[in-house]
Amino acid sequence: MEYSNRGFNACLVGLQWGDEGKGKIVDILTESFDIIVRYQGGSNAGHTVVVNNEKFVLHLIPSGILRKDKYCVIGSGVVLDPRQLLEEIAELRGKNIEVGDNLRISETAHLVFPYHKKLDELSESEKGDEKIGTTRRGIGPCYTDKMARNGIRVAELFHPEHFKQRLKKIVEEKNKIFVSLFNTDAFSWKDMYDEYCGYAEQIKPFVCNTVVFMDDAIKAKKKILFEGAQGSMLDVDFGTYPFITSSSVTAGGATIGVGVSPKHIHKVFGIMKSYTTRVGSGPFPSELNDELGEHLRKKGGEYGATTGRPRRCGWFDAVAVKHAIMINGVDGAILTKLDVLDEQKTIKICVGYKFGDTVYDLFPMDLAARSGCQPVYREVPGWQKDTSRIRNVKDIPLHARNYIDTLEKIVGVKVEMLSVGPDRGQVVSLV
Question: Does the model's pTM come out above 0.85?
Answer without folding.
Answer: yes
